[in-house]
Here is the input.
Amino acid sequence: MARTPKPSGWRSPQGPSHETDLGRRTDTRDSLDRLLVVCGAETTERDYLKGFKAAFKRRTLSVRVTERPGSPSQVVRYAADRWGGSGGEFDQVWCVVDVDEFEDLDRAQRLARRENIELAVSNPCFELWLLLHHTDHRSWVADYRTLKPLLQKHAEVRTDKSVDFPRYYGGDRWEHAVARARDLAPEHTSTRPIRPLACGAWR
Here is the structure.
């Protein structure tokens, strides 16, 4: 796992930062990197990440996916209190959160920096990341209700919000999503406003 600064996206912890490429197929280290991902929703993010992990296995990477539904700061606090930041039981700790109607993202970012936890932020919600697997969407969307019919044009959106990764998001679709999401999540600092449409899940 390369120990290099992120080229762009939502920066969170102080000090050296890391870009985790779960889709890279070539093993470059003999040691095992331990990565924890805490999802701020109960189903969608978890199903996607577990499907991604199964599709792009790496011998040198151990990924644990868990969920703690709640606001961004609640998710980060849970990760910090339960697991500690990077360098403890895990080499990296990530929180995957949505902006949605929450108003505590700034607090979550400050806490993440202090606890050495990475943030992947979707604005307004994770379904934007799913949509980017299929189309280069750039128009403003207010919330999940607005995004749902757009995503339904390309993929099944289930009532229980579960995700069929191989069918709708596998293959090279995620590579297209990464390229599209990078354009929506340019480099920024905590003093700059959050873009109305952005996705940090590509990191």
